[in-house]
Amino acid sequence: MNHVTFPPAALAPHVLDQLRARDDAGAVVHSRVDDEGGAPLRCCLRRSRTGERIALVSYAPLRRWAAETGAEPGAYDEVGPVFIHTDRCTGPDPAAGHPFTETGALRVLRRYTGDGRIAGGTLVQLPDDPDKAGAVVDEALREAFSDPAVALVHVRAVEYGCFLYEVRRLRR
What are phi and psi of 150, to 5 degrees? Predict the structure, then answer.
């Protein structure tokens, strides 16, 4: 088991149900059989496997969080592409640790305050040792949440700017 101090959050099942009908850009969703595998799935926080039915949908992560919390993201509201399973899946494996920690990949961790404003970010290069990559992400999250104003962190791929997952401040 890969212990993580700040657990990654997949898209919630009720959000996925909504996105499977109509995405956050208002488009009807079209699914396809994944012929290659490897798409980063936000429903279960793993890479797709060849032959699975997936869809590429528009998702507004900060808007969705703000609707739950009463925050106002203003200009920071973004809509971007994410892959999901076309049908419900089992969700993420809680023992898997931080997802999408490919060797040498660049990640940006964007920080947001409780009122929905951006509070900076951290660029992280994952190490060549995949066993250490999760620890690097966890340390960057520890730094982010050391600021008491930070309520939420988005982990994104630098190459395409894609939202990968979010981490929320743990409530005590």
Answer: -75, 125
Q: What is the pLDDT of residues 110-164, one digit of tens each?
A: 999 999 999 999 999 999 887 799 899 999 999 999 999 999 999 999 988 889 9
Other beta carbons within 10 angstroms of residue 140's beta carbon come to: 20
For residue range 12-24, what is the model confidence (pLDDT) as tens digits? 999 999 999 999 9
Q: How far is CA 51 from the centre of its chain?
A: 23
Mean pLDDT value of segment 166-170: 92
Closest alpha carbon to 60 in 48, 74, 49: 74
Give the tokens for residue 123: 């660029």
Q: Which of 87, 21, 22 is nearest to 48 (CA)?
A: 87
Q: What is the pTM of this model?
A: 0.92
Using CA atoms, how far apart are residues 71 and 151, in angstroms rounded to an integer?
A: 11
